[in-house]
Amino acid sequence: MTMKSLNVALDTVLGYRPNNSKLEKVVRARFIDLFAGMGGTRLGFENACKELGIECNCIFSSEIKPHAISTYQHNFKNSEVNGDITKIPPSDIPDFDFLLAGFPCQPFSAAGKRNGFLDERSGLFFTILKILKSKKPKGFLLENVEGLVTHNGGRTLNTIIKKLKNMGYKVSWELLDSSDFGVPQNRKRVYIVGHIRKKYIELKNFPVKSSSIEQYLDYEHEFKPTEFAKLLSKKFSVEELKGKAIKDKRGGANNIHSWDLELKGAITKNQKELMGLILRKRRNKKWALLKNIDWMDGMPLTLEEIKTFFKHPNLKKDLDELVEKGYLRFEHPKKKIIVNGATTRVPCKKNPKGYNIVAGKLSFPLVKILNPLECCPTLVATEVGKIGVATKKGVRAITVREGLRFSGFPENYIIENISYQKSFDLIGNTVIPPVIKAVSMRLLGESKNEKS
To answer: What pLDDT digit, counting tens, does each position of 231-260 carry?
Structure first.
């Protein structure tokens, strides 16, 4: 191979340019940031480029939420954020090397209806395909929720991978948990990468780094305890509250229930014991067999059925008082029926009414009190303001800054001029920059060293 042809090959593959018979290293990565949110994907990708010594440039961003756009532009100065990507022809997008996209997760999320490709939002994946087909970049990095792995028996993910491979990319994917990357939050997400080269990118065997929220808490944060927080502190010590979930569902010793707090009115020790027993016993599958009905996780139990595991002379009186106060409801068990092709449950009036727990979680002002020695559970937008911490000053919801820290964002990243709720809408839907960085290091590292 001649020197001239060698220079051309290097220029094509590594980004070297001949300059007076010398080679000038100009490795670069032009990228686009789709469904940009608050910019977590961009931040992680840019950090990977910086560590690898790669010059990078975000040449196009797209996002539709106004509060996400304002936050993005505040943290990435002079960034023009385009609107709805489905309304922008691929030909209007500048040429680029890498496509980044945490495409909307609701069609595959356990929190949604999981309609997958039947959901109009999943059409955004096909928008990605159109852009890849038109622009033919070197590679891409996509992120989505854990539910994508099992959606439609795994066929949805297989379809996505197949369509990407059919475009000439070598594709690999992995389910990764942010808690393995030094981030104090358990957040499992699917990461899909692809490149035009022939060797696939390994997304396994990342160095495991563990962390807890303890070092990220703002112990000096000034706040005014809510009435609910005061009640928690009155009933339990700080140590007793750490790691507790607050919901009227099963969970054993780690659960605090509405009757433990007497939220709906004072109850006796006997009634508290009764509530705990009903909570556990109603899950026994024998009740479904006795009632000749499909099992459900929480069957209403009749007075006679409750007598089989709790004997007390005032049992009927206690049960009715608990119904009156709203801790229990008196209802028929529910049977499964098919309506318009969908399964639902309706009261089965052939069976007598029974007593059932008034279950709930999001109705509580706080649903989880974090243990400082553990990771934070996955932060989701629907539980905004409901994740709390217990300090010597009292019980409070986590702050926006703590939410950012639990998600791997640096201290110089700022969310301001939007509400607490909108701030956690961004945090609950963000990607985790340190995980994006680690995945991008593999993608960019391989890209940088690819052979012609």
So the answer is: 999 999 999 999 999 988 877 778 999 999
Tell me which residue of 315, 320, 318 sits closest to 305, measured CA to CA.
315
Task: Read off the pLDDT of each residue in 210-223 and give the average, rounded to a whole number.
Answer: 94
C-alpha 91/C-alpha 101 separation (Å) is 18
Calpha distance 49→55 (Å, rounded): 7
Q: What angle do CA 76, 408, 186 make, to 5 degrees?
A: 140
Residue 13 main-chain phi, psi, to 5 deg: -90, -50
What is the layout of strands, in order, in the sheet containing 81-82?
81-82, 55-62, 28-34, 98-101, 139-145, 188-195, 170-177
Tokens for 144?
């989505």
What are the residue numbers of the active site? 105
Q: pLDDT tens, 125-153?
A: 889 999 999 999 999 999 999 999 998 88
pTM: predicted TM-score of the whole model, two decimal places? 0.83
% of the chain with per-residue pLDDT over 70: 88
Distance CA 6, CA 337 (A): 70
Map tokens 């090397």 to a residue. 97
Q: Which residues contact 258 (CB under 8 A, 6 or more apart)?
A: 248, 264, 327, 358, 364
Q: Which of 358, 192, 180, 379 is nearest to 278 (CA)?
A: 358
Q: Tokens standing for 260?
A: 């433990």
- Residue in 302, 223, 235 with CA at minimum distance from that of residue 263: 235
